[in-house]
Every structure is written in structure tokens, then in C-alpha cells.
Amino acid sequence: MTDAHNNDAHGGELAVAEPIADPGLPEHQWRPTDVDPAKEKRAERQVAALFGLSAVSTVLFLVAYFTLDIGDDWHVVGGFGASTMALGFTLGLALMLIGVGIIHWARKLMADHEMVELRHPARSPDEDREVAVQALTDGVAESGIGRRPLIRNSLLGAVGLLGLPAVVLLRDLGPLPGNKLYHTIWGKGLEDKPMRIVRDGIWTPILASDLEIGDLVNCQPDALHNPERYDIDPTEVEGVNLQVHKSKASLILLRMNPGDIIPGKDAKGDSRENWTVDGIVAYSKICTHVGCPISLNERTTHHLLCPCHQSTFDLADSGKVVFGPAGRPLPQLPITVDDEGYLVAQSDFDEPVGPTFWERDYYER
Fold first, then answer.
1. E strands present in 33-182
2. Fewer CB atoms inside 10 A, N or C side of the chain?
3. Where are the beta strands (DSSP E) in the chain?
4. Confidence category of residue 269, pLDDT binned at 50, 70, 90
């Protein structure tokens, strides 16, 4: 390859010699499919067969998806389940056969001749651009896709069927959440046993008198550790269910001077003045931007900073956003104390926690 133009010392352009007519390459050898129509037809059938086998593999993927359960008792080598192996093998085979078919098509049937292309400035002249478009058009014509309907149709069928696994696999995203995003386990407290707020990890209840101004505590609902206390089936707070509850119910307690608190309004428009206890406020630990856990506290300003994207919330003013990409304030949990002086939740959050989703209603505070 050579540059089409070079600049001389005075800014002018110097012409570049054309490539050598015969650079010494060996004489071009024609492929058997170029000179034998029978072999050309056989190669065409081979390519179509590869595409057809790809389509069959895609159909087998769908059959395996709907007929093999993840919990099937029989397994194959290595302990991998039948469903996993069948899905992986059939989808991988479908993709591989399309690739092999295209390679076989290119090696046996597409145009086979040497090409020379001159380098040119970044912005080609209009004439060169027209030549490029024409070359692309010629390439499509030389591929034979227009005059080889067997290959074209089998390829389109195989690629088209590959869209079905993508649609079917959406089913594995799980059932729609319904109203589960609107509620947390904080609302499971009983009238005679309101849900206690406990320290995350050690599960000890918190006396309001134990917190000093500036203290910030990461908390969870007591029901995750003592479900029987609230008449909750223990299986509801085990395994995956436990992680789901923790992800939605994670809480932050902060004690500040009561005079610093600016009471906001709840979803019904009522004052939140009775949602705090001697300057202690409770907010969701889940950032309303993309759901990161937050706990970076600026003690003098009562600002809470999310480490992911620097969204900043004012815990003295209803958790309002003062900086960053978050679009909603932090949900606040109404709290009080029980007969023993331990902090408890008055009720569930009055709005969904975490990032915004389509069905969520937003209200100004």
C-alpha cells in the first residue's frame, strides 16, 4: 500500500507512482468451485445444510427450555444439570453453525481475486467515495447472495430463528414484582409488638437514650432475626428472601439537635413532626439514584453522601437531594419508642424505597 499523495516542503502535492504491475506473486490458482459447476452446487448445498442445522439447533433449544426443568434429578458428566447442558449446547451449536456456514461460503463461493487499494487522505474525494459505494455494491453482487436463493433463504431462516431464544429467555427474568416494591418488612410489626430497630449484623435493639448527637447507626428490622416475635413464618426470612428483605429494609439512624430538623410532609400531606424521637431520624439506606447503599455522613451539615455517584441528601430536611443525579429524596421511616424505651417503627415507609421505576408515583414533600 502507498499514500495517494505526499506534501512537499512548500505545501504542494507530489504525485506517487502507481503500484508495480507485477509484484512477483505466483499465478492465481482457481478453486475447484470456480471451474466445476458440480462442485459449486455441492458447496452451495453444504452451506445451506449448515444454516439448516443451525435452525434445527435453535428449535431444539426451545424444546429443551420448555421440557427440561432445572430441578431434574438426572445429570450428565461433571455434575452439570441436563437443562444447563442442553440449553448451552444447542444455542452454542446454532451460533457456531451460522459462523461455519458463512466461512465456508466465503472460501468456496464468493469472489476470489487479488485486490489493490491505494491509501488516500482521511476525507476521500467524491470520486473515490462513489467508487467505494460501487465496490460495496459489486461485493454484494459477487457474494452471489442475489443469485443463490438457497443460501440466502437458509441464512435468513437460521438468523431469524435466533431471535426466538432471546425472547423466550426473557421469561427467566422472573415474575413481575406486582406491589412488592411498595412494601417492606417494616410494615409487619404488630399492634402490641411494633417492629424494633436493631443494629445491623449484631441484631441488638437500640435505646433512644444510648444515641448521642452525631451518631449514625446502620440498622435492620428485628423480624429478620426474630420472626416469631411478630408472627412471621421463619421461612420468609431465609435464603434469598432474607437478602430481598434486607435490601429493601436497610435503615440509617442519625441523631441531631431537634431544632435542626425541618419537618416535611408525608404522602397524605400531613406533617412529619411526630416521625422523630428527640432528634433521631430514620431513613432508607438505599440511594434513590441506582440503589447503592449509603452511609457517608457529614456531621455538621447532616448531609448523607452516596459513594457511587455523589448524590447528597439532607437528613435534617426530609432527606431532600442537595447535590448529584438522584431524582428523589430518601424515604423516611416514622419511628417512636416502645414501653422499654427501644426504638421501633410506627409503620412501613409511606413510599417505595430505592430507584425510581415506571409505575411509581412521585409526590412533592
1. none
2. N
3. 5-7, 13-15, 197-199, 216-221, 251-255, 280-284, 296-298, 303-305, 312-314, 320-323, 335-337, 343-345
4. confident
Residue 154 phi/psi, 5-degree rounding, is -70, -35
Instruction: Return the axis-axis angle of helices 37-67 and 149-161, rounded to nearest 10°.
Output: 20
Whether 188 and 195 have beta carbons less than 8 Å apart is answered as yes
User: What is the Cα Rg of the chain in Å?
Assistant: 34
Separation of alpha carbons 321 and 304, rounded Å? 10
Q: Average model confidence (pLDDT) for the chain? A: 86
Q: Report the DSSP beta bridge partners of residue 239.
A: none
Provide the pLDDT confidence category of residue 180 given band limits of 50, 70 and 90.
confident
**Can you list the alpha helix ranges (DSSP code H) found in 118-260?**
126-143, 149-161, 163-168, 239-249
Q: Please give the single-letter amino acid code of residue 250.
A: S
State how far the Cα of 121 lies from the Cα of 116, in Å rounded to an integer: 17
Per the listing, cell 482521511 goes with 122
What are the sequence ranges of the domains in the chain? 5-173, 180-345
Q: Please name the residue that has the C-alpha cell 429443551.
A: 64
- Angle at CA 232, nearest 5°, toward 295 and 254? 20
Q: How many residues does the chain have?
A: 365
Percentage above 90 pLDDT, the chain: 56
Q: Which three cell numbers stand for residue 151?
A: 443460501
HSE value, Cβ hemisphere, 13 Å, CA-based, for 111: 13
Model pLDDT for residues 13-52, shown as the tens digit of each residue: 444 555 666 667 778 788 899 889 999 999 999 999 999 9
pLDDT band (50, 70, 90) for residue 73 = low
**Packing angle between helix 149-161 and helix 82-108, nearest 10 degrees?**
150
> Would you identify the CATH topology of the domain 180-345?
Rieske Iron-sulfur Protein (2.102.10)
What does each C-alpha distance from 169 to 31, 85, 86, 160, 162 come to in angstroms? 43, 15, 14, 16, 12
> Is residue 261 within 8 Å of 312, Cβ to Cβ?
no
Q: Is the dihedral of CA 78, 83, 84, 88 positive or negative?
A: positive
